[in-house]
């Protein structure tokens, strides 16, 4: 008899919301620091991991931005991206959509060429060596200015053909999406899809602004939308995907207990909910661990788990043909399981 965890790990899944700079495993963080002759505040992977206790988003972001300092060269960006894609493949991820926020690096003089070169090479190698499909999203920081974001948009244009979308993260409260209306209009004018972190710590009105003012294609997190039932109906009618990250929400105290997580309520409202990892080592879980933890805390049924995984594949920013291939892989996996049980 297969365990729920093995069943979930084997499901062909998407991870549509993760941050490359948030995926540095502690040992890699130490190795990269050593590569550059830097001394971290922690000497061992265990000591570093034990620092991953956060009262809120701000305290996490402080450590996350500190961790960004070890990423300096093209090789570093290659190594962290390749390591995540290897780990995700072992986790059953067949499609990964990854954010990187260039401002953390370019402000310290890291050339955009190093960042893009390393990340794109790792994506190409993961496709060739393990068949993982991946897409790159450029994320801007909402706690910086709209003019700073505009500069990023100009800097990335040489790689526009390799970028599937533009996002926004960082400290949410006090930095509403409306501050970036001009930026996202410019991104859409240049042909990019857009997705914005909203309703993680911020209110439902931020989700509404993202939807109505920025006209996003997806919402990252979106938890707070449940406070506005008109908005929920609008999101459901438009089938706007929400890339929910349950273990992130738990570790950042957005929810105090996974049993209180709104995931199931979101599904009951007909929202297009997907489950994703966000910053896996910091929150102690890749996509499989997120689904396993939700299954047990929220008593999710097998059809509910399959629905979440199917939602993720459907919400991926791929061609119609590739989406069909991904969904067929899921159907084949499920058919194989049924046969094995018969
Ligand atoms: N959970 C999160 N919220 C906002 N910005 C982020 N950047 C990385 N993870 C994030
Ligand atoms: Zn995120």
Automatic annotation (TrEMBL):
Annotated cofactor note: Binds 1 zinc ion per subunit.
EC assignment: 3.5.4.2
Catalytic residues, chain numbering: 200 (proton donor)
Ligand binding (substrate): 279
Pfam families: A_deaminase
Segments forming domain Adenosine deaminase: 12-332
Coiled coil: none
Binding site for Zn(2+): 17, 19, 197, 278
GO molecular function: hydrolase activity
Keywords carried by this UniProt record: Hydrolase, Metal-binding, Nucleotide metabolism, Zinc
Cofactor: Zn(2+)
Record-annotated site: Important for catalytic activity: 221
Catalyses which reaction(s): adenine + H2O + H(+) = hypoxanthine + NH4(+)
Family: Belongs to the metallo-dependent hydrolases superfamily. Adenosine and AMP deaminases family. Adenine deaminase type 2 subfamily.
Role noted for this protein: Catalyzes the hydrolytic deamination of adenine to hypoxanthine. Plays an important role in the purine salvage pathway and in nitrogen catabolism.
Name under which the protein is recorded: Adenine deaminase
């Amino acid at each position: 008899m297969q365990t729920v965890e093995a069943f979930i790990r084997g499901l062909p899944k998407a991870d549509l919301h993760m941050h490359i700079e948030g995926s540095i495993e502690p040992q890699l963080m130490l190795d990269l620091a050593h590569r550059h002759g830097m001394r971290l505040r922690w000497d061992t992977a265990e000591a570093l991991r034990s620092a991953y206790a956060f009262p809120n988003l701000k305290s996490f972001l402080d450590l996350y931005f500190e961790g960004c300092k070890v990423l300096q060269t093209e090789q570093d960006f290659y190594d962290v991206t390749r390591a995540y894609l290897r780990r995700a493949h072992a986790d059953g991820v067949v499609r990964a959509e990854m954010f990187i926020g260039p401002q953390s690096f370019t402000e310290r003089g890291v050339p955009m060429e190093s960042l893009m070169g390393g990340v794109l090479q790792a994506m190409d190698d993961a496709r060739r060596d393990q068949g993982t499909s991946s897409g790159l999203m450029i994320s801007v920081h909402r706690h910086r200015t709209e003019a700073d974001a505009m500069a990023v948009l100009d800097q990335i244009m040489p790689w526009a053909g390799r970028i599937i979308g533009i996002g926004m993260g960082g400290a949410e409260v006090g930095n509403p999406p409306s501050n970036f209306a001009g930026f996202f209009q410019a991104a859409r004018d240049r042909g990019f899809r857009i997705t914005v972190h909203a309703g993680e710590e911020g209110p439902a009105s931020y989700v509404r602004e993202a939807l109505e003012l920025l006209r996003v294609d997806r919402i990252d997190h979106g938890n707070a939308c449940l406070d506005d039932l008109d908005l929920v109906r609008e999101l459901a009618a438009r089938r706007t995907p929400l890339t929910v990250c349950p273990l992130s929400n738990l570790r950042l105290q957005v929810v105090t207990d996974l049993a209180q997580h709104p995931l199931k309520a979101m599904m009951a409202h007909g929202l297009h909910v997907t489950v994703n990892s966000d910053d896996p080592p910091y929150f102690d879980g890749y996509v499989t661990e997120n689904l396993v933890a939700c299954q047990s805390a929220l008593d999710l049924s097998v059809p509910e788990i399959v629905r979440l995984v199917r939602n993720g594949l459907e919400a991926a920013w791929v061609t119609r043909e590739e989406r069909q291939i991904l969904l067929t892989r899921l159907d084949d996996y499920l058919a194989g399981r049924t046969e094995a049980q018969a």
